[in-house]
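User: Predict the complex with zinc ion.
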Amino acid sequence: MQNFVFHNPTKILFGKGKIAEIGEETVQYGKKVLLVYGCGSVKKSGLLDKVKDSLTEAGAIISEHGGVQSNPLLSHTHSGIAIAKKDKCNVVCAVGGGSVLDEAKAICAGSLVDHDVWKFFTGKKSIKATLPLTTVLTLAASGSEMNSGMVITNDSTTQKFGFGNKHLFPKTSILDPSCTCSVPADYTAYGAVDAISHVLEFYFTREDSCTPVQDRLMEGLVINAMESCDRVLKRADDYQARADLMWTATLALNGLTAAGLGKVGFPMHMIEHSLSAFYNIAHGAGLSAIIPGWMKFRAASQPQRFAQFAERVFDIRNGSMQQKAANGIEALESWFCRVKSPTTLTDLEISAEEIPKIADNAVALAKVWRMREYNQQIIESVLINCL
Ligand code: NZQ
Ligand code: ZN
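Assistant: Here is the predicted structure with zinc ion placed in the model:
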């Protein structure tokens, strides 16, 4: 296990009835609140009104920035920054899934500078300060509620870039699992896939080979993501299953699993972001189309690691190391099929002819993320594996 610093400053309020506390949690940072939300689900469910009531009771003056779309856009982020600046907002409150939270993070960072917020994403500028952020999470998936990452699509250049900075941790996030009961089956499954993918990225790219605590933790999170998702898909309003899935997704990407692993990569995300950028695919759906192909590519160089995954997650005991590795990948792919998440590019109606264009787009992010081993040729061969 390698040296590490684990410092996660986000306060989590978890459970039923916690929404009422968002007002007090937010106004301690300022009274002029920019309320950020998505394309309608929070209005339909009545959650937005509850959040507004709590903010108003706490003395907040609310400005609104709704209409954040899934795979949030830079142009829409610019409008949010303009509102925050015009209304002199001193705190941001985000109500929604990962897309809403990420756009809110970008607004928090962009509101305190004169240059384009995109310069943070390309590494031309670094974040020195942000507006404080509170969140109410409505979808178990991204981990954004308790991490320092954000992902935005530049709709002028068709680039979906993401990065982390310590100023981007939300101050407080409210996780009430009952808010996720209205998430439809497809997005519930894509969310579970996303949580699993965050674990797999670390599990299979870690630098250090002696990390038993992290291994067991990550294997447990994958098992739990699948089990809780299965339960939710049987009964959408199963509170305990929603709670399991929600906390699993948060733990999968809050820094805990990666602590002590040394350098880790995010190759499946790096490639998936190009799929979302070109085709506006749900993030989890794009991931499940990439994961099996990437795993087959990677398993060739570390079959032992993949055999361990197969044994511990899917109880695959028979066969050679290579056979176990292959059977583990197949078992995960079967689970993706069972929850109706695509497992190939073909499922997404993306053909072989489009691969060079996708790879070319992904190379740009590989450079920003300093994953130089992923050149055009390597990315194309991974994508061919995904057809
Ligand atoms: O816009 P509304 O109407 O709210 O609808 C959303 C959206 O259509 C809907 N939804 C959300 N909560 C709901 C609900 N529908 C019914 N009931 C609810 N309670 O679900 C759809 C998807 O929402 P979205 O926020 O896009 O999903 P998710 O949470 O999966 O976020 C995806 C984004 O997060 C980024 C992804 O790249 C993608 O842009 N990620 C962010 C990360 C981070 N910040 O650390 C890491 C992740 O790897 C990921 O890349
Ligand atoms: Zn993800």
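The chain has two domains: 11-179, 185-385.
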